[in-house]
Each structure stands twice: as C-alpha cells, then as structure tokens.
Amino acid sequence: MVKITDVEKGSYASEAGIISGDILLSVNKNIINDVLDYRFYIMEPSLVLEIERDGKIISFTIKKGEYDDIGLEFSTYLMDEKKRCRNNCIFCFIDQNPKGMRETVYFKDDDERLSFLHGNYVTLTNLKESDIERIIKMRISPINISVHTTNPALRVMMMRNRFAGDCLRFIKMLDDGGIAINAQLVLCKGINDGEELENSLSDLVKLKNIESIALVPCGLTGHREGLYELESFDKESASAVIDIACRFGEKCLNDKGMRLIYPSDEFFLTAKREIPEEEFYEGYPQLENGVGMIRNDITEFLECLENLNDLEYNRKITVATGFAAKDHLQMLADHATEKYEKLTVNIAPIRNDFFGGSVTVSGLVTGGDIIAQLKGVDIGDELLIPENMLRAQGDLFLDNVSVEDVEKALSVRIRVVQSGGYNLCEAITGLNE
Predict the structure, then answer these.
(1) Which residues pair with 53 in a beta bridge?
(2) Which of 11-15, 52-56, 71-75, 348-352 has the lowest mean pLDDT?
(3) Same domain, 282 and 184
(4) Tell me: the pLDDT tens digits for 287-317?
(5) 173: left (phi over 0), alpha (psi -120 to 50) or beta
(6) Which residues contact 363 (CB under 8 A, 6 or more apart)?
(7) CA distances from 279 to 276, 292, 296, 298 (A)
(8) Residue 137 half-sphere exposure, CB side, CA atoms within 13 Å?
(9) Same domain, yes or no, for 250 and 102?
C-alpha cells in the first residue's frame, strides 16, 4: 500500500474519481508495494484499483490504452525507500570519500529497482528468492549485476558479506528465467584478476542470456586510512587484463557471434594501448560504465566536425577535464583548430587534489580544484566542463562548490557539455550559441 500524493488533471485516475491522499492498495487484486508492482500491473487495458479513503476501501474501474499511464503520482519514484547496500566491499569507492561532503554522497544503494529504472548495478545480496521470482514473473529485463567474481569464497572475502557467495545462484535463476544480464567485474590487482578472472569469464560466458561483461579497475583515492590494502593497476597488469579479455572475447565472437567482454577505457589508457575501433564495442552496451566512451566521443566528434560550416568569428575556449581524458581531447581539439584558424582550444587537465590517489577521471573533478588550478589562467570566452562533473541536478560539484561559484571565482562563463562527441564538437565550436 502506498499513498497517492497527486493526481494529474484530466488523467484516467482523475476522471475515475481518485484524489490526492488516497491510499493505493491493489491493482486487479495484486498488492502494490513499490514501483515495479505498480508499473507492471497498470499495463493492462482494464484496471480495478482498490483505494483506502478515510478508513473505507473503495474500488475504481479504469479503461485505457494498454501502455497508457493513469496519472497517479507518489512521494518518491520508487514508491518506497531506497535499499541500502549491506556489503562492505574492500574496494568500495564511497568508503574512500573525504569527510565534509554532502550527506547523499555517502549513501550506498544496492537496489534492483534502480537497475531497471536507471541502469544501476546490483550485487544481489539484498534479494531473496521471492524477489528473483518476481523479476522473472514480470519479465523485467535486462538486469545489471555487479558480479566481481564467480568464486563464492572469494566473493564473500571481497564484499565482506557472508551471503555474497550463496546469492551467485540467483544469476543462474535469472538466466534460466530468460532475463537478460549485463555483468560488471570491478577488478582488484592480485585478487580477482589473472586466473580468477579467467575462471569468472569462463562461468559467465556459459550463460544463455548474458549480453555484456564489463571489466573495470577499482578506483583508489588518497583517503584509504584503515581500509583494505590495494594496489593500482600498472601498465603490465592492465595489459594482462586486456589480453585475457580479448582472448575470451575472440572465442565468444567465434562461438556466439558477439565479443561480449569489454575492458573499460581506463585499462587501455593505463596499458598505453590504442583504444579499439568502433566495431570492437558492438553497439556500446556498457557505455555508461566507461566502456568505449573514448571511441564513441572520437567517432561522433569527427563526424560532427566534418559537417560543420565555416566559423566567421574568433573564439577561444578552455576545456576542463581529468588527466585520463586529456590526450584524446587534445587530439579532437587539434582537429577542430586545424579546420578553423580562428578557433583556439586549451585543454586543461585538472589534478585531483580533493580525492588524491590514482583518481584521474573527469567525473570526479571538483569545483575547488578547478578554481585553484585555473585561477589566473587566460580561459578565453568560455570554460567547458562535462556534465558528469556535476550531480544530477546539474548545479553542484562533489565538493559542494556550485557552477556559479566557479564562474565568479574565475570571472568566466561556464558551459556544461552533455555527454557524447556531437555535443562536445558543438560546444567547442560555439555552434547554436
């Protein structure tokens, strides 16, 4: 049962007589506990909603199009509280956050509903067999799973949760139930790479409904006091991961017609290897996981640049980024300035003093570090930053510094650039200003 906070004017629910403050009990006699129940059961064209109002239970009948929404709103999009992570992983990035950040940064979620709604990865340790059965019954697919290793004992050790090994059986249940699976393995040097990685990949590629497997290095900040001792991947160990992935990927390509296994861009950068061509990524199934993002940006940027008309004005801009992306951004900037003589582009890699350690990705660059390192620099007409530097609302960096704070401190206009090479090209060239 969930409380209705608003009813859209003119909607099916409004026309039926449902009002704000009503309690939704069931749809077609199916009890509603959260957003998964609600979204699944309102798909039918004929609905009977049981509502509690002032202590009385009332039934409302709605006739609608099969996939039409009925216009009810609830206090949260989950219609429930987020599920908090029960693990204590040895590589958890949130445990490595410095003190003094906003409270939401320290919240660890592990919620299967966010996997379906937003693509989050879940470990399955929060789930029971009944939850797995519900997913299969509702045909909710795909599910994104943080596997890390298929060795039960090692998974228990890495996640420091005694149930982490046993719940690996849920993966087989989901696969047998026809649910598509995207897997993620966060790799820790000397722990679940090497032979353990080979064993995990051997197990995962046997699944009938596996759609992709991403290999991502654990991120290590400078705030690991009292935490499990871990090492960053170096050129040799990153190369070894790529070699294993490519060997298994080639076999999958021959056996299944798909590569399935993709090391993240960070592994290629650390190993100082060329980023693979677009065909390698097979449609970029794990782009948001940092897999193929560089190649996608390059492809889109160059396509966009080729189709742009000449610039008729002088323009100078600076692009703030992390050190991991500086070389490929410089290459793209060089292409743009070669085409447009009146364009000047300065790529400004920002050293991550806030997090420290081996953090070099742009998504963890903070406003304070940008101010400290670009103060007094001739930025030009605009400072470009990628949208992943900001929280979802698009206003604050991780250190609670706002976009406006940076603009005032540097006396420059900031343009927040949405992801993708097309958006970057248009922002650099000033298209659609």
Answers:
(1) 56
(2) 71-75
(3) yes
(4) 888 899 999 999 999 999 998 887 777 899 9
(5) alpha
(6) 322, 386, 388, 389
(7) 8, 10, 11, 13
(8) 10
(9) yes
What is the DSSP secondary-structure string of 232-279?
Answer: ---HHHHHHHHHHHHHHHHHHHHHHS---EEE-HHHHHHTT-PPPPGG
- According to DSSP, the β-strands at 72-74 and 2-7 are antiparallel
At CA 259, angle to CA 258 and CA 261, rounded to 5? 135
Q: List the helix and strand counts (H, then E) for the chain.
A: 14, 14
Q: Which of 74, 103, 133 is the last residue of a domain?
A: 74
3-state DSSP assignment of residue 389: helix
Residues 68, 107 share a domain:
no
Residues linked to residue 3 through DSSP beta bridges, in sequence order:
23
The closest of 74, 73, 16 to 50, measured between CA atoms, is: 16
Instruction: Label residue 10 exposed, middle or buried (CB < 10 Å: 0-12, 13-18, 19+).
Output: exposed
Query: Are 313 and 221 in a shared domain?
Result: no
List pLDDT tens digits, range 116-151: 555 688 899 988 899 899 889 888 889 999 999 999
Q: Which domain holds residue 242?
A: 94-286
Residues 116 and 234 in one domain: yes
Beta bridge partners of 348: 320
Q: Verify that 114 and 252 share a domain, yes or no.
A: yes
Query: How many structural domains does the chain have?
Result: 3
* Mean pLDDT to the nearest integer, 365-380: 96
For residues 60 and 200, state if they share a domain.
no
**SS3 of residue 422 by DSSP:** helix
Q: Is 210 helix (H, G, I), strand (E, B) or coil?
A: strand
With residue 270 as reference, give the H or E element that holds it: helix 265-270
Amino acid at position 68, single letter: D
Residue 126 lies in a domain: yes
Other Cβ atoms closer than 10 A to 327: 12
Taken in order 374, 375, 381, 387, the sign of the CA dihedral is positive
Q: Are 107 and 244 found together in one domain? A: yes
Closest to 82 measured CA to CA, from 106, 108, 63: 108
Fill in the DSSP letter of residue 267: H
Domain stops at, among 247, 266, 286: 286
